[in-house]
């Protein structure tokens, strides 16, 4: 990850260090979601950092969605996971950035012949081999999403190259996706999904389909995810044309 360093000392800049420190506080649950962060003034006095530095660190974390600010009331640890839609990140990276530890439970991690539906989604000819991963994704041991990924075996030859993170495995194979198309739909979770995600049947879920591409236009993954609607917000920055 690219981090700005102070050219004189080669240390990460103070506000970035503070941002990481606050991330760790959130990750270790030292302050629970929904609870207030100490005031800007208290932070700057305890940490011996300028108010400007503290404000900058907080602003960055608000933008990332880890903190929320209520006018006049202060800054709080976000209760929901707010995920920017425009960044092509992996589940693992995303949780690590929030200081939460990611984990996956696999139901399926195998290789087989492509189905007609998969061959359409991945632009593969009939008879091609694909790797299939079916996982429940956890953050701090809480189930957050269910994911079914299909990847051409020409890109990922062995399903066991994926330990916890698909994107980490792809990165090692020089096949990290560079662009993706994503569709998000509201669904109510069926009995099996609800059981896996520890919510009640019929709870709201976000069904997200992602097709990711390599630079040369090949499709690297077709992933269908069900994220918990009671936890996730997906946000995007919009601009006029
Ligand atoms: C995210 C992606 C999913 C991708 C996965 C890889 C969304 C909606 N989906 O969950 O398409 O396959 O990350 O994560 O963000 P991993 O590298 O941790 O396996």
What distinguishing features does this structure have?
241 residues; alpha+beta; 2 domains; six-stranded antiparallel sheet; two-stranded antiparallel sheet; 7 helices; globular
Describe the structure.
The protein is an alpha+beta fold and 241 residues long. The chain has two domains: 14-77, Orthogonal Bundle (Arc Repressor Mutant, subunit A); 81-235, Chorismate lyase-like (Chorismate lyase). It is 26% helix and 33% strand. The protein has seven helices and ten strands. It has helices at 14-27, 40-47, 51-64, 91-97, 116-122, 166-172, 191-196; strands at 67-70, 74-77, 81-84, 102-113, 129-139, 142-152, 179-188, 204-213, 219-228, 232-235. Strands 4-5-6-9-8-7 form a six-stranded antiparallel sheet. It has a two-stranded antiparallel sheet with strand order 1-2. A two-stranded parallel ribbon has the order 3-10. A hairpin with a 2-residue loop joins strand 5 and strand 6 (142-152). Helix 2 (40-47) packs across helix 3. The mean pLDDT is 91. Bound molecules: 2-acetamido-2-deoxy-6-O-phosphono-alpha-D-glucopyranose (16G). 2-acetamido-2-deoxy-6-O-phosphono-alpha-D-glucopyranose binds next to helix 4, strand 6, helix 6, strand 8 and strand 9.
The number of E-state strands comes to 10
Cα separation of the termini: 31 Å
CATH topology of the largest domain: Chorismate lyase
What's the level 1 CATH class of the largest domain?
A: Alpha Beta
In this structure, how is the largest beta sheet organized? 6 strands, antiparallel
Counted by DSSP, the helix tally is 7
Mean pLDDT: 91
Cofactors, ions, other ligands: 2-acetamido-2-deoxy-6-O-phosphono-alpha-D-glucopyranose
Alpha carbon gyration radius: 20 Å
Tally the structural domains. Answer: 2
Strand portion = 25-35%
> How would you write the strand order of the largest sheet?
4-5-6-9-8-7
Share of residues in helices: 25-40%
Query: Which structural category fits the helices and strands?
Result: alpha+beta
Point out poorly predicted stretches.
none
N-to-C order of helices and strands? HHHEEEHEHEEHEHEEE
CATH architecture field of the largest domain: 3-Layer(aba) Sandwich
- Find the CATH superfamily of the largest domain: Chorismate lyase-like
Query: Outline, from the CA principal axes?
Result: globular
